[in-house]
Amino acid sequence: MSSSDAIAAHLEWHPFAHRQDCAKPVWEIDHQTVSDALRSRRGGPEHACPNDECGHHDHYDRITVRLLCRSCDTVRLISGEEHTTRTTTTARIGYGQSPKRVAGLWLYPGPPLLDLGDAGPGAYLCSREKVDRLSQDDIVGTVTEGRGKRGATVWYAAIGPDFHPPSRGLTGYATWAKNSGEKPFTSVTAAAKWVAAELDAAAVTETKEDQEQ
């Protein structure tokens, strides 16, 4: 399990902005679905389907999501076709769960390694501070799940992220300056302690180098 799924859950999302003078920035969110809508002649691109026997022709299902702020009177409308909707949980998407404090760090959960039942996070992003939303500047390390002998759950760790943005349909990812090596940890706590110790050691080295200059 790499940290990419956790990064995608936390970093590749952007909140909708309210007006700068908004006194109570809260979105009221609704959606509207229109089934079998008829596209007018000038209502969009010409129908082109690779399946010659398709049944929808110029009919389509349209969904519109409306975000309304009653404080600043801002309305955002998001429309799409060929949509899918599903109801899931914060544990499944890897975002929205509370971070946990381990070894002086805040660990933010990512999605499960395998989407099975009540499986726990497959990776954690490590931050020195507790924040509402992670940014690249907050992330100092990662703890990721793996499989050891006989399928046992093990954990690896890394520090020093170098972020690469999404490109050509692929999600963003990070490369790490230092990882914990081939020998895994048996718990998240042990992996997080390695991250904390390496960060402290790097800080000491950086301080010495600054003093020598």
How would the blueprint of this fold be written?
Elements: H1 4-11, E1 28-38, E2 59-69, E3 74-81, H2 90-93, E4 100-102, E5 105-109, E6 123-127, E7 139-147, E8 153-164, E9 173-179, H3 188-212
Antiparallel strand pairs: 1-2, 2-3, 4-5, 5-6, 6-7, 7-8, 8-9
Structure description:
This protein has helices spanning 4-11, 90-93, 188-212; strands at residues 28-38, 59-69, 74-81, 100-102, 105-109, 123-127, 139-147, 153-164, 173-179. The radius of gyration is 23 Å and the shape is globular. The longest helix is centred in the C-terminal third of the chain and has 25 residues, at 188-212. The protein has three helices and nine strands, in the order H-E-E-E-H-E-E-E-E-E-E-H. The strands form two sheets. Strands 4-5-6-7-8-9 form a six-stranded antiparallel beta sheet. Strands 1-2-3 form a three-stranded antiparallel beta sheet, with no helix packed on it. Strand 2 and strand 3 (74-81) form a beta hairpin. Helices cover 17% and strands 33% of the residues. By secondary structure, it is α+β, with helices and mostly antiparallel strands.
Largest sheet: 6 strands, antiparallel
Low-confidence stretches: none
Oligomer: single chain
Total helical elements: 3
What would a concise description of this structure say?
The protein has 213 residues and is an alpha+beta fold. Helix content is 17%, strand content 33%.
Descriptive labels:
three-stranded antiparallel sheet, alpha+beta, 9 strands, globular, single chain, six-stranded antiparallel sheet, 213 residues, 3 helices
